[in-house]
Amino acid sequence: MSSSNCDCNYDYLKPITYDDLFDETSKKCTDYELIIAKLTEARSSFFLFQASIFNFINDCTRLKQKVREDLSGNDLLSITYEYKVLLNNLIAEIALAMRKKMKQDNSILLNFEVPTTITNKTVEDIQTLWPTNIVYSDIAGVDTLIISLPSVIIYLRENFQLQVKITTPKGLSYTNLTFDNTYIKSHNSKANDNFIKNMTPELSVSGTIYGFKDTENANDIFDDLINYHCDDSIFTHNLKEVIERLNGIMLSIENAHRSIIQKIKTEKINETIC
User: Fold this and answer.
1) In whole angstroms, what is the distance from residue 263 CA to residue 266 CA?
2) Which residues, other chains included, contact 216 with Cβ-Cβ below 8 Å and sequence gap of 6+?
3) pTM to 2 decimals?
4) Is-contact 39 257, C-beta < 8 A?
5) Strand order in the sheet with 162-169
6) What stretches of the chain show up as alpha helix (H) in DSSP?
């Protein structure tokens, strides 16, 4: 588990001082500050998404210690119940991280949903959400795409397998778009890339109840979760790929953050020259 702790060791980007970049009459300070605020909140959301997964793994590690060979049926049911509680806590933590509304312009930062479980349905059957774009329009009416933020759907199947669908655009089109200010707009591309993965193993069914069928099954599921980062033979879930995708999303947001700061510095230099 030490490896997973290292994976989530991120430092947040340091804020910049806007007063040093533009004079008091410039409106660019306010516009750029809103972009930076949105990028910071978006990165924080995906960071907390990932942190929620690490917390879940740590909780599963502690719960596994209760699994013994001589467990009674009631004890196994109790552990199954505790595991289901951990799953629901994971969903709640992710939802809390991803549901962000910007106070500055009352915009929804990320498209996110946790649909109700439907019998015989998977996350692939759930309607895809559009990614959202952060777009900046300058005083000349030139629109600049800062970043496209993925949409996320978290879905718990009836067998208690947790799934995720992360949607990003394949292509971007900004023909004849006019914006008065910086804000988030739902992406309208017809081509999207859907990253669909299982975050946890499925549970066995006995009658109409899903759970651990025996102590060996419980140990196997916990081992698969705990060793997600170091065992490439695991096929019951794709948690390692989900973690890697979240790392990639955070990196793209960091790059957009740096690009905006560079743009601010460049425009300040140009203003000074003029």
Assistant:
1) 5
2) none
3) 0.80
4) yes
5) 112-113, 151-156, 162-169, 192-198
6) 2-7, 28-64, 73-98, 215-226, 239-273
C-alpha span between 1 and 228 (Å, rounded): 10
User: Does the pLDDT of residue 17 top 70, yes or no?
Assistant: no
Query: Residue 33's pLDDT is what?
Result: 84
Determine the Cα–Cα distance for residues 240 and 230; give it in Å rounded to an integer.
Answer: 9
Closest by CA position to 58, among listed 15, 110, 93, 30: 93
Question: Rounded to an integer, what distance in angstroms lies between the CA atom of residue 192 and that of residue 2?
Answer: 36
The phi, psi pair for 154, rounded to 5°, reads -110, 125
* H helix and E strand count, the chain: 5, 9
Question: Virtual CA dihedral for 223, 194, 103, 32, nearest 10 degrees?
Answer: 110
pLDDT of the residue at 178: 35
Cβ-Cβ contacts under 8 Å for 208 (sequence gap 6 or more): none
The rounded distance, in Å, linking the Cα atoms of 249 and 48 is 13
User: What pLDDT score was predicted for residue 119?
Assistant: 94
How large is the average pLDDT for residues 69-94?
A: 94
